[in-house]
Amino acid sequence: MIDLMRIVHVSTGKPYDIFIEKGVLDSVGETAKRLSAAKKVTVISDTNVAPLYLERIEKSLENSGFEVFSHVFKAGESSKTLDTISKIYADLAEFGMTRKDIIVALGGGVCGDMAGFAAATYLRGIDFIQVPTSLLAQVDSSVGGKTGVDLPAGKNLVGAFHQPIAVLIDPDALTTLPDEFIRDGMGEVIKYGCIKDSAFFESLEAENVLGKIEDVIEICVSIKRDVVSRDEREAGERMLLNFGHTLGHSIEKLHGFSGITHGMAVAVGMVMIAKAGEKQGYTEPGTAERIALLCKKYGLPTTDDSSFAEIAEAARSDKKTAGGTINLVLLTKIGESFTKKIELDRLKEFITV
Ligand code: MG
């Protein structure tokens, strides 16, 4: 089979391309050379991903003439802190990284968010390339320029919008992923079908798409590209990408961010909010059931032990929802979504079905 490179162009304020191809990991050096006048590159990765791919990435960069450094942090969401960022800054300074040098983020969502944030802020901003290695990062978090870290008070409370200069997606990287991480990414994949693309949703229903994952990646990043190109800073349409996330985030929080992945929580959140939408008369009847069946098909949960009251309370205490109202993302039907602002005080009643 001839494997063609797929390129998705993102026309944000600072435009860039997403390259999807098996083996594209090995072309990070060429891509960096083509897009940047950097002399030095720092690769940021974690202890899970570095043993698998760091050497290949370093070699590719060195072959293109770069002086290469690496910073490897302990894998996991608990590393996504300002403390880790301080250590990254210290290394960047020690390596003598200048404003024209670049960072490569090699890893999953945590790595991309954090390396992106380091790039957004070191020397008031340097360029970076995303090399996402998890399904969640490949279909979702590596595109769109959201970067940041967690605070003790909540997830992603400090960050910056900073677009990469390129995203290199190697579907072969997924072959080393434990099953749980494929399921995690499928939560976001199903989300894209729900909010924007009923034909895609139907194809997820009709077949097992894991065998043609490049198509799935291309469709998801193209939808995200369309949305973030029109609304880079989440003033409106970009909020639709949060479908299932308000309640999902509350559920993650109630679990103390362990024992349930982001994608699992989003799956439950999508089913819950679709049910609520049906009850309130906004959403075509039967929609929640279709989403639930699809989530189950890809090994995702559709219910949680937390009560409606607990979930609503967790959303209310979220630092991001300060101000008394919340923007819920609802579906009219599969493939069509909209936002609705409601009072936080009404959330419990709204979601109770
Ligand atoms: Mg998400």
Map the helices and strands.
Elements: E1 6-10, E2 16-20, H1 28-35, E3 40-46, H2 50-63, E4 67-73, H3 82-94, E5 102-107, H4 109-121, E6 127-132, H5 135-141, E7 146-151, E8 154-161, E9 166-169, H6 179-196, H7 198-206, H8 213-230, H9 245-254, H10 262-279, H11 287-297, H12 308-316, E10 325-333, E11 336-343, H13 347-351
Helix pairs in contact: 1-2, 5-6, 5-8, 6-7, 6-8, 6-10, 9-10, 9-12, 10-11
The protein binds magnesium ion.
Magnesium ion binds at residues 140, 188, 245, 262, 266.
Protein traits:
353 residues, single chain, binds magnesium ion, 43% helix, alpha/beta, globular
Strand neighbour order, sheet with most strands:
1-2-9-6-5-3-4
Helix amount, in percent?
40-55%
Bulk shape:
globular
How many individual β-strands?
11
Number of H/I helices: 13
The succession of helices and strands, N to C, reads EEHEHEHEHEHEEEHHHHHHHEEH
Distance between the termini: 50 Å
Mean pLDDT: 95
Low-pLDDT parts are: none
Rg for CA atoms: 20 Å
- β-sheet strand percentage: 15-25%
The unique ligands bound to this protein are: magnesium ion
Structural class: alpha/beta
* Largest sheet descriptor: 7 strands, mixed
Short characterization:
The chain is of the alpha/beta class.
How is this structure best described in words?
Helices cover 43% and strands 20% of the residues. The chain has 13 helices and eleven strands. The strands form three sheets. It has a seven-stranded mixed sheet with strand order 1-2-9-6-5-3-4, with helices on both faces. Strands 7-8 form a two-stranded antiparallel sheet. The chain has helices at 28-35, 50-63, 82-94, 109-121, 135-141, 179-196, 198-206, 213-230, 245-254, 262-279, 287-297, 308-316, 347-351, and strands at 6-10, 16-20, 40-46, 67-73, 102-107, 127-132, 146-151, 154-161, 166-169, 325-333, 336-343. α5 runs parallel beside α6, α6 (179-196) packs across α8 and α10 (262-279) packs antiparallel against α11. With 353 residues, the chain is of the alpha/beta class. It starts with 5 loop residues before the first strand and ends with a helix. The structure holds magnesium ion.
